[in-house]
Description:
The protein is an alpha+beta fold. Helix content is 35%, strand content 24%. The protein has a five-stranded antiparallel sheet with strand order 1-2-3-5-4.
Amino acid sequence: MDDLQNNTTGGQQSCSGDVEWLDTKAVSRRFCLSKPHLYNLLAEGKIRGASIRRRGATRGRRLWLADSIRSFIEANEQ
């Protein structure tokens, strides 16, 4: 974890600030989006996420790309 630092929302951010991946709880706190809504947006291709798991495992950890969520919100501002 040399080049990563924890931020106050529970996500990970590189020291250079390039890419920020957040877990579901952090996304819910930061953007007020529910877990089902996130998965619907992911299925529709409107935001990006990645499932991190061990080879052969059925369960893992879902991470969300914060920039894709910000872009989605900005595109849908009214």
